[in-house]
Write a structure and sequence with these properties.
This protein is mostly helical and 332 residues long. It has 13 helices and four strands.
Length: 332
């Protein structure tokens, strides 16, 4: 008993430290994801094409994850996921999604990508949670989704009246990104797939694009300075695909799903604000209104675990993220 009493304060201190580290890690992940829209658009506007960025993304992440994740699970079983599930996940978060994202950044402002993608993912994710997992809709959740939809409509109207006709095309690409990407976390949850294993499989399968790139889109290594190529390879393959997802996956079970769900609204804030000094993209009045509505709606919809399983509507527990056990409701 004395030993238990003596170690209890130490355990509490460790828990507080892990929680603080998880909050810091989650903030870092949001900064990485939000800044990627600006960094990628800067690359596209300064010599690199969407195909170049795709090759850097999948070559870097795929080669780094190939030995420890994909081959460890077995080639015959597609890294332990099965080829059907592996290919499906690769379509949703591999080449098609990434191509739409990087193509859209060549036509529309980075701020549009940072808000349209997460906004669409939120709406589709809520609908999918209701249909697949029996989640309940609350007034707060419906209000937040409504604000997101109105904000998306404002951006669409602003795009049709913009001096550049390509804005709408870019926004449609970002909408496609949101529609494709939204199914990825739903299937991860439905199939109970480890996030890092899924990332490894997606990255390795997406390397099938590299021969196509080498044959039809490769322009040589002298189109831009080598340090720019290295920097964007690090940003695309290491920061966004490996580091961002890893710290997201580690932080979520530490904080709990209800608290972790409050961080994604940081993505459009980071992307919108960073695009002003980095790219000189000053949004119009209608665009500012649309962006503000989407950010506001995301905060309202994610501030509490608004969509909850019907069987747990009156309980004080939420599902765990890495297994089927329930974990106590945590507060920040």
């Amino acid at each position: 008993m004395d030993a238990l009493v003596e170690t209890s304060p130490l355990n509490d201190q460790r828990d507080r430290l892990r929680r603080r580290l998880a909050i810091a890690a989650m903030i870092l992940a949001m900064l990485i994801f939000g800044a990627n829209f600006v960094v990628s658009r800067h690359a596209v506007l300064n010599g690199l094409t969407a195909h170049d960025m795709l090759a850097l993304r999948f070559a870097t992440a795929g080669l780094l994850l190939l030995p420890s994740f994909f081959l460890a699970g077995g080639l015959a079983s597609c890294g332990g996921l099965g080829w059907g599930r592996g290919v499906t996940l690769a379509v949703m978060s591999g080449f098609p999604m990434s191509y739409l994202l990087l193509t859209g950044l060549g036509y529309a402002p980075a701020a549009h990508g940072a808000v349209i993608g997460p906004g669409t993912v939120t709406v589709v994710g809520i609908v999918g949670s209701v249909m697949l997992f029996g989640a309940l809709l609350t007034k707060q959740l419906v209000f937040g989704v409504g604000a997101v939809l109105v904000g998306l409509a404002c951006l669409g109207i602003a795009g049709t009246h913009h001096s550049s006709p390509t804005i709408m095309l870019g926004d449609l690409c970002f909408l496609g990104v949101g529609l494709i990407w939204a199914g990825y976390p739903l299937l991860i949850q439905l199939w109970k797939v480890d996030a890092l294993k899924a990332t490894a499989v997606v990255s390795v399968l997406s390397m099938l694009y590299l021969p196509v790139y080498a044959l039809f889109f490769f322009r040589g290594f002298d189109v831009v300075p080598w340090w720019i190529i290295a920097a964007h390879a690090f940003n695309q393959g290491v920061l966004n695909v490996i580091v961002g997802l890893w710290i997201w996956s580690w932080s979520t079970p530490v904080l709990g799903a209800a608290v972790a769900g409050r961080f994604p609204p940081m993505i459009p804030i980071v992307g919108t604000l960073l695009a002003i000094p980095a790219l000189g993209e000053i949004p119009s009045g209608l665009q500012i209104g649309g962006i503000a509505l989407i950010i506001f709606g995301l905060f309202i919809a994610s501030w509490r675990s608004a969509a909850r399983p019907a069987s747990q509507a009156h309980q004080s527990q939420i599902p765990g993220d890495t297994d089927e056990k329930a974990e106590p409701q945590r507060r920040p």
